[in-house]
Amino acid sequence: MIRCEIRGENIEVTDAIRTHIEDKVSKLERYFNDALNTHAHVNIKTYNNKKGKVEITIPMKDLTLRAEESHDDLYAAVDLIVDKLERQIRKHKTKINRKFREKGPEIELFRAIENERAEEEEQNDDGIEIVRTKEFTLKPMDSEEAVLQMNMLGHDFFVFNDRYTEGTSIVYRRRDGKYAVIETN
Protein backbone atom coordinates (compact mmCIF):
# COMPACT_ATOMS: atom_id res chain seq x y z
CA MET A 1 0.00 0.00 0.00
CA ILE A 2 1.23 3.47 -0.83
CA ARG A 3 1.24 5.47 2.41
CA CYS A 4 0.31 9.13 2.06
CA GLU A 5 1.95 11.83 4.13
CA ILE A 6 -0.35 14.82 3.66
CA ARG A 7 0.59 18.35 4.67
CA GLY A 8 -1.58 21.41 4.27
CA GLU A 9 -0.46 25.02 4.03
CA ASN A 10 -3.19 27.59 4.75
CA ILE A 11 -5.71 24.75 4.83
CA GLU A 12 -6.85 22.17 7.33
CA VAL A 13 -6.57 18.65 5.95
CA THR A 14 -10.00 17.24 6.75
CA ASP A 15 -10.87 13.56 6.85
CA ALA A 16 -12.77 13.97 3.56
CA ILE A 17 -9.72 15.46 1.82
CA ARG A 18 -7.42 12.81 3.33
CA THR A 19 -9.74 9.97 2.24
CA HIS A 20 -10.08 11.35 -1.29
CA ILE A 21 -6.30 11.69 -1.70
CA GLU A 22 -5.58 8.24 -0.26
CA ASP A 23 -8.22 6.63 -2.50
CA LYS A 24 -6.87 8.31 -5.63
CA VAL A 25 -3.18 7.67 -4.86
CA SER A 26 -3.92 4.03 -4.02
CA LYS A 27 -4.99 3.54 -7.66
CA LEU A 28 -1.31 3.97 -8.61
CA GLU A 29 -0.45 0.78 -6.69
CA ARG A 30 -1.46 -1.36 -9.64
CA TYR A 31 1.57 -0.05 -11.55
CA PHE A 32 4.15 -1.05 -8.92
CA ASN A 33 5.60 -4.48 -8.27
CA ASP A 34 6.42 -3.50 -4.69
CA ALA A 35 4.20 -0.75 -3.31
CA LEU A 36 4.59 -1.84 0.32
CA ASN A 37 7.44 0.51 1.18
CA THR A 38 6.30 3.40 -0.99
CA HIS A 39 5.36 6.79 0.44
CA ALA A 40 3.59 9.62 -1.31
CA HIS A 41 4.38 13.09 -0.03
CA VAL A 42 1.34 15.28 -0.67
CA ASN A 43 1.50 19.03 -0.17
CA ILE A 44 -1.70 21.08 -0.40
CA LYS A 45 -1.60 24.87 -0.56
CA THR A 46 -4.37 27.39 -0.81
CA TYR A 47 -3.95 31.02 -1.78
CA ASN A 48 -5.92 34.20 -1.07
CA ASN A 49 -7.69 33.89 -4.41
CA LYS A 50 -9.15 30.54 -3.19
CA LYS A 51 -7.12 28.66 -5.81
CA GLY A 52 -5.46 25.50 -4.54
CA LYS A 53 -2.25 23.76 -5.53
CA VAL A 54 -1.55 20.07 -4.96
CA GLU A 55 1.92 18.53 -5.27
CA ILE A 56 2.52 14.79 -5.04
CA THR A 57 6.03 13.37 -4.86
CA ILE A 58 6.74 9.65 -4.69
CA PRO A 59 10.44 9.15 -3.95
CA MET A 60 11.85 5.69 -4.52
CA LYS A 61 15.35 4.27 -4.33
CA ASP A 62 16.47 5.11 -7.88
CA LEU A 63 13.54 7.13 -9.19
CA THR A 64 11.26 10.00 -8.19
CA LEU A 65 7.74 10.52 -9.51
CA ARG A 66 6.40 14.05 -9.13
CA ALA A 67 3.50 16.11 -10.42
CA GLU A 68 1.66 19.24 -9.40
CA GLU A 69 -1.62 20.84 -10.33
CA SER A 70 -3.39 24.10 -9.53
CA HIS A 71 -7.18 24.31 -9.63
CA ASP A 72 -10.11 26.12 -8.04
CA ASP A 73 -11.47 22.77 -6.85
CA LEU A 74 -9.06 20.82 -4.62
CA TYR A 75 -10.71 17.48 -5.41
CA ALA A 76 -10.44 18.12 -9.15
CA ALA A 77 -6.76 19.02 -8.70
CA VAL A 78 -6.13 15.67 -6.97
CA ASP A 79 -7.90 13.82 -9.81
CA LEU A 80 -5.84 15.66 -12.43
CA ILE A 81 -2.55 15.10 -10.65
CA VAL A 82 -3.12 11.34 -10.28
CA ASP A 83 -3.94 11.23 -14.01
CA LYS A 84 -0.61 13.01 -14.69
CA LEU A 85 1.30 10.49 -12.58
CA GLU A 86 -0.41 7.59 -14.38
CA ARG A 87 0.57 9.08 -17.76
CA GLN A 88 4.17 9.46 -16.56
CA ILE A 89 4.31 5.84 -15.44
CA ARG A 90 2.69 4.47 -18.60
CA LYS A 91 4.89 6.58 -20.83
CA HIS A 92 8.20 5.63 -19.23
CA LYS A 93 7.70 2.22 -17.57
CA THR A 94 9.19 0.12 -20.38
CA LYS A 95 12.39 2.18 -20.50
CA ILE A 96 12.67 2.24 -16.72
CA ASN A 97 12.11 -1.50 -16.35
CA ARG A 98 14.73 -2.15 -19.04
CA LYS A 99 17.21 0.07 -17.20
CA PHE A 100 16.55 -1.66 -13.87
CA ARG A 101 16.90 -5.11 -15.50
CA GLU A 102 20.44 -4.11 -16.53
CA LYS A 103 21.23 -3.62 -12.84
CA GLY A 104 19.73 -6.95 -11.77
CA PRO A 105 17.73 -9.53 -13.76
CA GLU A 106 14.95 -9.82 -11.18
CA ILE A 107 14.41 -6.08 -10.74
CA GLU A 108 11.36 -4.51 -12.35
CA LEU A 109 9.91 -1.40 -10.78
CA PHE A 110 6.64 -1.27 -12.71
CA ARG A 111 4.17 -4.04 -13.51
CA ALA A 112 3.12 -4.80 -17.06
CA ILE A 113 -0.39 -3.43 -17.56
CA GLU A 114 -2.29 -4.43 -20.68
CA ASN A 115 -4.00 -2.05 -23.12
CA GLU A 116 -1.93 1.03 -22.35
CA ARG A 117 -1.07 3.93 -24.63
CA ALA A 118 1.65 6.46 -23.94
CA GLU A 119 0.54 10.09 -24.08
CA GLU A 120 2.71 13.10 -24.84
CA GLU A 121 2.64 16.12 -22.54
CA GLU A 122 3.42 19.63 -23.68
CA GLN A 123 5.25 22.07 -21.44
CA ASN A 124 5.38 25.84 -21.80
CA ASP A 125 7.77 27.89 -19.69
CA ASP A 126 7.97 31.49 -20.87
CA GLY A 127 9.20 33.35 -17.77
CA ILE A 128 12.76 33.84 -16.59
CA GLU A 129 11.96 34.96 -13.06
CA ILE A 130 13.55 32.73 -10.41
CA VAL A 131 10.76 31.88 -8.00
CA ARG A 132 12.23 28.89 -6.20
CA THR A 133 15.60 27.48 -5.22
CA LYS A 134 16.10 23.77 -4.67
CA GLU A 135 18.91 21.83 -3.10
CA PHE A 136 19.43 18.14 -3.72
CA THR A 137 22.06 15.41 -3.63
CA LEU A 138 23.51 14.39 -6.98
CA LYS A 139 23.35 10.66 -7.57
CA PRO A 140 25.78 8.73 -9.78
CA MET A 141 24.07 7.53 -12.97
CA ASP A 142 24.60 7.37 -16.70
CA SER A 143 23.09 9.86 -19.14
CA GLU A 144 20.26 7.53 -20.19
CA GLU A 145 19.14 7.14 -16.57
CA ALA A 146 19.34 10.92 -16.16
CA VAL A 147 17.07 11.45 -19.19
CA LEU A 148 14.54 8.98 -17.75
CA GLN A 149 14.65 10.73 -14.37
CA MET A 150 14.26 14.14 -16.05
CA ASN A 151 11.21 12.94 -17.97
CA MET A 152 9.67 11.38 -14.86
CA LEU A 153 10.00 14.70 -13.05
CA GLY A 154 8.56 16.56 -16.03
CA HIS A 155 11.57 18.87 -16.29
CA ASP A 156 13.52 20.08 -19.33
CA PHE A 157 16.93 19.39 -17.76
CA PHE A 158 18.52 17.25 -15.07
CA VAL A 159 21.82 17.59 -13.18
CA PHE A 160 23.64 14.40 -12.15
CA ASN A 161 27.01 12.86 -11.33
CA ASP A 162 28.18 10.93 -14.39
CA ARG A 163 28.93 7.36 -13.36
CA TYR A 164 31.72 7.01 -15.94
CA THR A 165 33.47 10.40 -15.84
CA GLU A 166 32.72 11.00 -12.14
CA GLY A 167 32.00 14.63 -13.03
CA THR A 168 28.85 16.71 -12.81
CA SER A 169 26.83 16.62 -16.03
CA ILE A 170 23.53 18.03 -17.28
CA VAL A 171 21.09 16.42 -19.69
CA TYR A 172 18.50 18.58 -21.40
CA ARG A 173 15.77 18.40 -24.01
CA ARG A 174 16.59 20.33 -27.17
CA ARG A 175 14.03 22.30 -29.15
CA ASP A 176 13.95 19.54 -31.78
CA GLY A 177 12.87 17.08 -29.06
CA LYS A 178 16.20 15.25 -28.88
CA TYR A 179 18.45 15.14 -25.83
CA ALA A 180 21.91 16.55 -25.21
CA VAL A 181 24.52 16.28 -22.44
CA ILE A 182 26.69 19.05 -21.03
CA GLU A 183 29.80 17.68 -19.30
CA THR A 184 31.86 19.72 -16.88
CA ASN A 185 35.65 19.65 -16.49
TrEMBL record:
Pfam families referenced in this protein's UniProt entry, alphabetically: Ribosom_S30AE_C (PF16321), Ribosomal_S30AE (PF02482)
CDD domains associated with the record: RaiA
Primary location recorded for the protein, binned into one broad class: cytoplasm
InterPro entries according to UniProt: HPF/YfiA_ribosome-assoc (IPR050574), HPF_long/plastid (IPR034694), RHF-like (IPR036567), RHF/RaiA (IPR003489), Ribosom_S30AE_C (IPR032528), Ribosom_S30AE_C_sf (IPR038416)
Gene Ontology terms for molecular function: ribosomal small subunit binding
Residue ranges annotated for the Sigma 54 modulation/S30EA ribosomal protein C-terminal domain, each copy included: 129-180
Keyword Transcription regulation: no
Localization of this protein: Cytoplasm
Keywords: Cytoplasm, Ribonucleoprotein, Ribosomal protein, Translation regulation
GO CC entries: cytosolic small ribosomal subunit
Cytoplasm is among the record's keywords: yes
The organism's place on the tree of life at top rank: Bacteria
GO terms classed as biological process: negative regulation of translational elongation
Annotated HAMAP family: HPF
Function: Required for dimerization of active 70S ribosomes into 100S ribosomes in stationary phase; 100S ribosomes are translationally inactive and sometimes present during exponential growth.
Protein name as it appears in the record: Ribosome hibernation promoting factor
Lineage: Bacteria, Bacillati, Bacillota, Bacilli, Bacillales
